[in-house]
Write a structure and sequence with these properties.
Structural class: alpha+beta
Radius of gyration: 12 Å
Distance between the termini: 21 Å
Strand order of the largest sheet: 1-2
Number of strands: 2
Order of helices and strands: HHEEH
Strand content: 15-25%
Largest sheet: 2 strands, antiparallel
Shape: globular
């Protein structure tokens, strides 16, 4: 996925047991792992899913955010 989105969006993986990971999980309502969230440039949650979505589905969500900019 990082390859498909290179130059378009940042893919960040967080450990929910780290300080930064706990803060992000609280901010975006993550209740379990794995969870995937898509956040726009203002830091607003635009997509969230518990579990792992198909890569194509996730890339589609990210590209929708990029188009709406």
């Amino acid at each position: 996925m990082e390859t498909e989105l290179a130059g378009k969006a940042r893919v960040i993986r967080l450990d929910v047991f780290s300080s930064v990971g706990r803060q992000a999980a609280a901010r975006y309502g993550v209740r379990g792992t794995p969870t995937v969230v898509v956040v726009d440039g203002q830091g607003d949650l635009v997509y969230g899913q518990a579990g792992l979505p198909q890569s194509a589905q996730l890339i589609e969500q990210v590209e929708a955010v990029l188009v709406s900019k």
